C-alpha cells in the first residue's frame, strides 16, 4: 500500500521511510505499507485479559474518514500526535494524518505534551491525565487546540468543570479497539454541551435483553458490535452510559452499578481516586465495598456518603490503599487493585 504523510513539517512516503527518526512510527508505517490487509495489535486489557487482534486497514481508513467528516478536518490542518504508537489511539492519529492529509505535529508522549507548543492545532487526542496536567501546569496552552477528544478513561466531573473555562471544544469519546476507537462523542463544554453520547455519522445504537449497547457500524467490515456496556438509549443515535455489565453488583437481589455511584459521590474525594466494588457475602451474595487511593482516612466520610446514597447503596466496608494498580495503558485495574488491598 502506498502512503504519504507530513510529520513535523517534513514529507515522508514509502521511499524515504528510513528517514523517520521515531522507531515506533517507522515500524507502524512499514507495516502499513506492506501487502498484508490487516494490522496486528493487542487490546488495552482494561476490561479483560489483553488479546491479540487483527484490524483491517480498510476499516482503519473508514474510521479515519468518519472522524474527518464529524470534526470537519481538512487537508493541511494541523493535528497533534502525543499518544504512544503501540496502542490504537496513537496508530489512528497516524492513519488520520495520511488519509485526511493532515499536517501531523508529533511530540513524545508525556503528562504535559503541549508545554512547549506555540502553534494552533486543529485536532488532538489526549488522555484525561494529560488534560489535567496541562490545566494544572500551563492552562493557556490548551486554548491553542481547537478540537480535543479525550479518551482512554472516564472524564470525571472535576475535570469537566475545569474545561468550562477553556475555549477548546472538548469531547469525551466512546469506543474500543474493535470499533477502531471512537464511534460516539459527548460534548463536554461550550455550545451543545451534553450528558449524552452522540453517534458519528451513519452509526446507530440499540440494546440487547441485558441493556448492553449494540453498535451498528455500516462503515466497518464488522457491521454489528455487541458491547458489555449497560446504557440508556435516548434515540437510535444517542445514549447515556450507565456502567459495565461486568461490574454490576448484585446484593440481596438489588443490582448496583458502581460507575453510577462513583459519579454521584465524586465531589467528596478531593481529586483522590476511588471506586466501588464487591466481596462475596453468604447472606446477600455480594456486599458493596469502597476502595480509596489515599494515605489518610477522609474525615466524616460515612456520614457524608449517607446524604448522597440510598440505604442499599452504602458500602459495607471502606478500604484505603497508597496506590491503585493500572493496566499498561494507565487505566485503573479494579480487580487487581481490590486483590492487592485484601492480600
Q: CATH class of the largest domain, please?
A: Alpha Beta
Rg value = 21 Å
How many DSSP H or I helices? 9
Mean pLDDT: 93
Task: Furnish the topology, listing elements before pairings.
Layout: E1 4-7, E2 10-13, H1 23-32, E3 38-42, E4 52-56, H2 57-70, E5 78-81, H3 88-100, E6 103-106, E7 121-126, H4 128-137, H5 139-142, E8 145-150, H6 157-163, E9 169-176, E10 181-187, E11 197-199, E12 204-207, E13 212-216, E14 224-235, E15 238-244, E16 249-251, E17 254-256, H7 258-265, E18 274-281, E19 285-293, H8 301-306, E20 317-321, H9 334-342
Parallel strand pairs: 1-6, 5-6, 5-7, 7-8, 8-9, 19-20
Antiparallel strand pairs: 1-2, 3-4, 9-10, 10-11, 11-15, 12-13, 13-14, 14-15, 16-17, 18-19
Helix pairs in contact: 2-3
Task: Describe the structure concisely.
24% of the residues lie in helices and 33% in strands.
Descriptive report:
By secondary structure, the chain is an alpha/beta fold. The chain has two domains: 4-201, ANL, N-terminal domain (Rossmann fold, 3-Layer(aba) Sandwich), CATH 3.40.50.12780; 248-342, ANL, C-terminal domain (GMP Synthetase, Chain A, domain 3, 2-Layer Sandwich). The protein is built from nine helices and 20 strands. The protein has a 13-stranded mixed sheet. The protein has a three-stranded mixed sheet with strand order 18-19-20, with helices on both faces. The chain has a two-stranded antiparallel sheet with strand order 3-4. Strand 19, helix 8 and strand 20 (317-321) form a beta-alpha-beta unit. The longest helix has 14 residues, at 57-70. The radius of gyration is 21 Å and the shape is globular. The mean pLDDT is 93.
